[in-house]
Amino acid sequence: MKRSESLDALRGLAILLMVYSGSIAFGEALPGWMFHAQVPPPKHIFNPDLPGITWVDLVFPFFLFSMGAAIPLAAQKRIQAKEPKRQVFFHILKRFLLLAFFALFTMHARAWVMSATPSVTEYLFSIGCFVLLFLIYGSFKGIMAARVEMALKAGGWILAVAFLVFFPFKGTGFSVYSVDIIIMVLANMALFGMLIWWFTKEKPLWRIAVLPFVMAVFLASTEKDSLNMHFFNWSPFPWLYKFYYLKYLFIILPSTLAGEWLLERKSTEMDDKNGKLWDLSAVLVIVLILLVNLAGLYMRLLVSNLICTVALSAGLLTLLKRSFRNSLVGLDKFVNSGLYLLMLGLCFEAYQGGIKKDFSTYSYYFVCTGLAFLTLTAMMILEDRGYFKSVMAFFASNGKNPMIAYTAGNLLLIPLFKMTGVSVWLDSLMGNAAEGLLRGIIFTMIVSLVTVFFVKRRIFWKT
Question: Membrane: is it a keyword of this entry (predicted)?
Answer without folding.
Answer: yes
